[in-house]
Amino acid sequence: MARWDAEEATRRVLERCETLGALSETPNNLTRTFLSRPMHNVQSLLLEWMREAGLSAHLDAVGNVRGRLEGAGSGNPGSGIFVVGSHVDTVPDAGKFDGILGVLLGIEIARAASETEIHHSLEVIAFSEEEGVRFGFPFIGSSATCGSFDPAWLARIDANGITLEESLRNFGLNPLEIPNAKLDLAALLGYFEIHIEQGPILENLDSPLGVVTGLVGQSRLTLEFGGRAAHAGTTPMNLRRDALTGAAEFVLEVEKLARATEGLNATVGRLETLPGAGNVIPGAVKLSLDVRHASDVVRLLSTNKLLELARGLAELRGLKCSITQNLEQSAVPCDPALTSRLVGAVLHGGLSVQRLNSGAGHDTMIFAPHCPVSMLFVRSPGGISHNPLETVLESDVEDALEVGCTFVLDVLGDHSA
Ligand code: GLV
Ligand code: MN
Ligand code: MN
After folding, report:
1. CA of 137 to the centre of ligand 3 (A)
2. Distance from the CA of 208 to the center of ligand 3, in angstroms?
3. Residue 237 neighbours by CB distance under 10 Å
4. Is this structure's pTM higher than 0.85?
5. How far does the centroid of ligand 1 lie from the alpha carbon of residue 369, in Å?
6. What share of the chain is helix, strand, coil (3-state, %, to 5)?
7. Ligand of minimum distance to the alpha carbon of 95
């Protein structure tokens, strides 16, 4: 068998990003939400690629693709499992690298590991859901592997009124088997994720890679403003209860507060107007609210302030305002000891060490309560992500692969870990 070659492995990763980037639920762009039709294809390719790289692979009950390489010490006391993962779902009109790149690099790291003696076992996981697009809350795949999948989530509905439970069954998965997706947490040595940065910091530093120090917390909510649908031509302006004008005022308040608060990012990314006709005054508006800050206190106080503002605005306009909390995720620090090993691998690769915080959420956050976690970012040219223009530089991907290999093989070979 040919020996592992970083340049060849990098080319394979980038070619496969293109292949998976063409598997979309929409014809002219990349949109691949949780358990959408093209996921079947993605899963079979990943199973095939994992097996070809020397892993034993299977699909779990939430649609995660799992590949395992047993270490020589497997089953003995003192031997554990190290997980390398990222996700395969996308936002609407996505780029081809968010999530996928980390999964494919994980497979190449495993291929390298399969050619050497390893003490601990390695599991590569392609999480089925991380973005939170379909059901309004993220991390469904990684939550199942960490035993934090809440059975109440099965009743959540998507935009078409399909429950999470139905979506699993329609896809051919059995929700009753979700508890079996849980890893042996007692044996978990750590979690590592490689991901594109999705922002401009590394590019501005002229650096291919970044070591992540921590991830910001996030609150995700749905607000519904309720007014009265009425005729656009016959209802005088002073007699309207227009849900959209109320919602519009709120959207501007969100921007105003975030601009006035250092480090706060707050976004209304989705707005649904009902009944949605040009000659009908909007009777109801549903909108999403995403609030992030490195400090949980600032995030929670800001979120509460925004909700108070929403209620106040609604009252002044005679609207109803209902609020649903979809996600409350605390900020997460990366593990100092594991991260310093990662720093060692960056230095070993002859690269400078740049440290940065992540403004994006990652599956890493779900593993953090259970084991040491670490993350490596790859420069995002133009700082662009969640956009089809998202891209990577081939030489950066090769650097990430070399550093990732050094780091993971170091952890897997460590008998004292
Ligand atoms: C995931 O991409 C997020 O929204 O942070
Ligand atoms: Mn994303
Ligand atoms: Mn991602």
Report:
1. 14
2. 18
3. 7
4. yes
5. 19
6. 40, 25, 40
7. 2
Ligand nearest to the CA of 387: 2
- Residue reference for tokens 């390298």: 112
Span of 35-49, 276-290, 403-417 with lowest mean pLDDT: 403-417
Name residues contacting ligand 1 (CB within 6 A). 131, 360-361
Measured in degrees and rounded to the nearest 5, phi and psi for residue 29 equal -155, -175
Q: What's the CA-to-centroid distance between 131 and ligand 2, angstroms?
A: 6
Whether residue 4 is predicted with pLDDT greater than 80 in this model: the reply is no
How would you classify the pairing of strands 217-226 and 271-274?
A: unpaired
- What separation in Å is there between the alpha carbon of 219 and the centre of ligand 1? 12
8 A C-beta contact, residue 374 and residue 362: no
Q: Quick one: which of 138, 118, 122 has its CA closest to 130?
A: 138
Is residue 1's pLDDT more than 60? no
Contact status, residue 358 vs residue 183, Cβ threshold 8 Å: no
Beta strand spans in 19-94 (E): 56-59, 65-69, 81-87
Mutate to test the pocket of ligand 1, among 34, 219, 362, 385 (most ligand atoms within 8 A of CB): 362
The number of angstroms, rounded, from the C-alpha of 48 to the middle of its chain's C-alpha atoms is 23
Tokens at 141, concatenated: 């795949």
- Site to substitute for ligand 1 among 364, 380, 386, most atoms within 8 A of C-beta: 386
Task: Give the number of other CB atoms < 10 A from CB of residue 192.
Answer: 28
pLDDT tens for each residue of 373-384: 999 999 999 999
Report which bound ligand comes closest to the CA of 30. 2
- pLDDT tens-digit series, residues 127-186: 999 999 999 999 999 999 999 999 999 999 999 999 999 999 999 999 999 999 999 999
Side chain identity, residue 2: A
- Of the pLDDT bands very low, low, confident and very high (cuts 50, 70, 90), residue 349 is very high
